[in-house]
Amino acid sequence: MSIIYLDNNATTQVSEEVQETMMPYFRELYGNPSSMHTFGGQVGREIRTARERVAALLDALPEEIIFTSCGTESDNTAIRSALAIHPDRKHIITSRVEHPAIHVLCAQLAMQGYRITELPVDKNGLIDLENLEKNLTPDTAVVSLMWGNNETGVIFPVEKAAQMAHEKGVLFHTDAVQSAGKIPVNMKTNVIDMLSMSGHKLHAPKGIGILYVRRGTRFSPFLIGGHQEKGRRGGTENTPGIIGLGKACELADKNMQKENTEVKRLRDKLEKELLARIPQSRVNGDTVNRLPNTTNISFEYVEGEAILLLMNELGICASSGSACTSGSLQPSHVLRAMGVPFTMAHGSIRFSLSIYNTEKEIDFVIEKMPAIIERLRGMSPYWNTAQSSCASK
Amino acid sequence: MWEYTDKVKEHFLNPRNVGEIENPDGVAEVGSLACGDALKLTFKLDENKKIKDAKFKTFGCASAIASSSALTEMIKGMTVEEALKVTNQDIAGYLGGLPDEKMHCSVMGKQALEKAVENYRGAPPLEAGAKIICECFGVTDKEIERAVRENNLSTVEDVTNYTKAGGGCGNCHDAIQQIIDQVRSEPKTDTKPKLTNIQKIRLIEETIEREIRPSLKHDGGDIEIIDIIGNRVIVATRGACSTCKASDITLKHFVEHRLKEFVSPDIVVEEVAK
Fold it and tell me: For burial by CB atoms within 10 Å, which of A46, A226, A351, B179 has the most?
């Protein structure tokens, strides 16, 4: 059975070019870039190239790029650095829909005495910038807002938010794990101080990420040890990962146009057709300010895990915000923050595409989904009543 | 990804007995859309009072659907008394086990079965005096007590996995812990070996015959066991007892007292609706 992979916000396939670029650095060119000999030193040159490529994708300076192990490490580093350089400030502003890397960290910091403001979102998943402004105080150490939401794809106006934070002298961090490589990110035209990014969301391998730190921004490292990354992140470099990420960024830059035309067109087709063919379904999240590859659709009266497992039988991979898939008993915190009713949240499915998806795959999913939902609704004790009450209206 | 057994997958992909029986003898709905799973169970009896057919409709995840399917298969051919002896563990066992986080799916099956039998008997709602502990999922203290006792649970997390209680806002965690502490401090589990259901029923019958009935008969009365559900002994009063205004005092202070002493301290005696 062939796999139709529509779960690219979870992780992506390492692209062929990226894999090829990485391969020599496992067995042939395995030297340590810090070594004095040419054998190791030549790897250092490749890391420099990779750093330039990452910087090019973000319109940043190479020296502003710190390689880390993942998006979560970058997020943790950014927040802790901001707190370390402002030890007198005890307030953090974030949102109710952040990734756990921020959300759980802030919950822990709250227990250590920090005051956390989680900005609410409206029913479309958007924040109110006036509300941000109202909450900025001289005690605020950092504002951290995600650029693109992993579950709904909703894009926050982080560039404006960063300006507002700066006007009050507050550092601004963004988790751009989902947006980097999918929408243009230009660090020359914005004032964002720190930005997290992860390799495996843009066809580089897992286990590599970056933290962008604007030149001139004070910084306190999280991992202490070696002199690597100019002392900003200790630990021997993940050389194949870094070199792979460099290549992936180069490709992402090249494919940016395709991502926002072709991938977007397929996403829109999938969304439009599913909504047309499946009654009592709706999109979660703003459809204008949204990543081009993501759609989050709720199918009422059925449960997400059951939908996913039936899709799985056909080789279709996606995700759900239902409680049953999370191991907790409540549906996704993002959908709850948006006020999506539980009845809708339990049946939510996130489809996230990549440039490697084909029209044929999307057509197959469009063809198969209605029967899956119908089958589960046929078992649902609510469906008949819901249907008859709709018919009587 | 959940680690489901092949049996769970098979029952999810090919669920048995989906639907609703028209004019059922017993019907029950448990759960709700909001809590993420719900089950409607219907059954019909044949002329020998055995369950001829059982059907379900379930909103929920794969293990909820598989548990419902398993339950309907298991109870077919049983009398309602036999069916009531099916535990959530039996349902999970039938499926080759369920992940811990999914045990509440089997508990939901058990709850639906109990409610459907009650509906068939026209009995009053279960467990008068039960108090809601978990507001988010509407779980009572009695349900938590039972889950703790029957599954030998020791942490709040276990209770959440089995009953959902405590899985929402978390405000009831202390109350759940208290129930766990209370159940676990009950001495009988260590001193007396756990009775199987059949042993317990036999012991109850023997105790009534030997310790209770002679005294009642002496006063021209009698009782008859109607049903035994877990530790609830449902009885009907006969003879002089059935017209006696003090019969409920007799039941509580004499019958229940004796059964607690000879069978288990958890026994509760209830009189069937007249």
Answer: A351
